[in-house]
Design brief:
3 helices; single chain; mainly alpha
Length: about 90
């Protein structure tokens, strides 16, 4: 969070995309760890209601991870285009 404020205050070119990519990477990793934790919890409980609930939560997290990965790819493309233009 500090990096974002620092970039906004000092307006360093190109830094925002780098921080954005790092932040996206960390969110994706966190979502994947939460999916694993949910699956392990489901294996421990094994009721149909818990299974359906965890399945829905895992589906939402998978979708979030997918769209964040696409966002990261777009950030990489933007960085590549800006470095080629220079």
């Amino acid at each position: 969070m500090y990096k974002i404020v620092d970039i906004e205050v000092f307006k360093r070119p190109g830094s925002y995309q780098k921080v954005r990519r790092e932040f996206t990477d960390r969110i994706i990793l966190g979502l994947e760890l939460l999916i694993i934790a949910d699956l392990l919890e489901t294996l421990r409980r094994q009721s149909l209601e818990d299974l359906l609930l965890v399945g829905a939560v895992v589906l939402v997290r998978i979708l979030l991870s997918h769209f964040l990965s696409r966002e990261e790819e777009n950030i990489t493309l933007i960085e590549d285009e800006s470095s080629e233009a220079v």
